[in-house]
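Below is a filled-in request sheet from our internal design queue. Each sheet records the structural input a requester submitted and the sequence that came back. We keep these sheets so that new team members can see what a complete request looks like end to end.

REQUESTER: design group, bay 2
PRIORITY: normal
MODE: inverse folding
CHAIN LENGTH: 311
BACKBONE (tokenized):
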């Protein structure tokens, strides 16, 4: 009985091993795959974190650059803007807030025409964002609108929705008073003030040039007399130099004449001396009987009398 039970136990163990072997292999594969999946997930998390950090750094750089640009603009405006000579710009006054009144609108009340006593509306450009509300409804929010066109004392707005500031049930009448708020207008006014300050500088330069030109034009006769006197003085100096040069030339001429006479006199004396000291070789043509006799020519011993020349 003991042997049979041992054999049965052994067979049961083998069968259990055969049955549970695939599950064991799957467990091992799961154990091996889990680190890879965890590594992949960890890598993806690190990549996401890195991308988020890079995005945050890029945003921070953009914000820093925007702040630097704004600071540079403000510093430029503060350096350039001079309130004393500028276009009545008051840094303490808020130019972004002004009032107006509706003068015309379309049927859908999406396009309205507004008149305003503020002369700064001329600095608006098409596409500028404007916010407005009705003064009688203090608890209402601001409505958003965009500038479409500019006229003298008027500007045209495109309004997408009037419900935040006016309500949907009320009728939007012509003549309604509105309070406007536009930070863009404040920037435009500041830029215009800075530009006007530069225009004042240019005007000052042009006025100084004009004053100089006016001075030259008004003092034309005086300047003409000065120029004429200056050239008369120069002409007198030139005439004086001319006369001095002519006198020197005449003096040189007289000296040359005396020297010429002296040279002619000395040349005549030299010619006389040359003639006097000329050496001649004597070869007589008529009285030469003694020379011919010495040379052995057939001549008489005594000279013959001179014969008359035949014509």
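RETURNED SEQUENCE:
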């Amino acid at each position: 009985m003991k042997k049979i039970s041992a054999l049965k136990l052994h067979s049961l163990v083998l069968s259990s091993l055969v049955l549970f072997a695939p599950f064991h292999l799957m467990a091992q594969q799961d154990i091996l795959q889990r680190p890879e999946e965890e590594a992949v997930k960890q890598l993806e998390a690190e990549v996401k974190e890195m991308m988020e950090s890079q995005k945050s750094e890029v945003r921070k750089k953009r914000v820093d650059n925007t702040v630097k640009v704004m600071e540079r603009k403000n510093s430029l405006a503060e350096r350039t803007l001079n309130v004393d000579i500028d276009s009545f710009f008051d840094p303490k006054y808020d130019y972004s807030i002004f009032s107006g009144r509706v003068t015309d609108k379309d049927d859908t009340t999406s396009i309205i025409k507004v008149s305003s006593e503020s002369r700064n509306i001329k600095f608006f450009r098409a596409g500028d964002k404007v916010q407005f509300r009705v003064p009688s409804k203090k608890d209402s929010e601001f409505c958003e609108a965009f500038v479409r066109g500019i006229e003298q004392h008027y500007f045209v707005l495109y309004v997408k929705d009037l419900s935040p500031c006016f309500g949907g049930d009320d009728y939007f009448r012509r003549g309604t008073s509105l309070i406007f708020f536009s930070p863009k207008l404040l920037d435009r006014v500041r830029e215009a003030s800075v530009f006007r300050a530069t225009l004042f500088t240019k005007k000052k330069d042009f006025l100084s040039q004009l004053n100089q030109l006016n001075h030259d034009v008004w003092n034309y006769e005086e300047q003409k007399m000065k120029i004429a006197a200056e050239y008369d003085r120069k002409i007198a100096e030139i005439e004086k130099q001319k006369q001095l040069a002519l006198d020197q030339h005449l003096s040189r001429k007289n000296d040359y004449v005396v020297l010429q006479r002296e040279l002619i006199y000395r040349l005549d004396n030299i010619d006389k001396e040359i003639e006097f000291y000329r050496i001649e070789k004597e070869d007589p043509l008529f009285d030469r009987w003694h020379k011919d006799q010495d040379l052995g020519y057939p001549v008489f011993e005594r000279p013959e009398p001179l014969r008359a020349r035949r014509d």
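SHEET NOTES:
- The mean pLDDT is 77.
- The two ends are 208 Å apart (CA to CA).
FILED BY: M.R.
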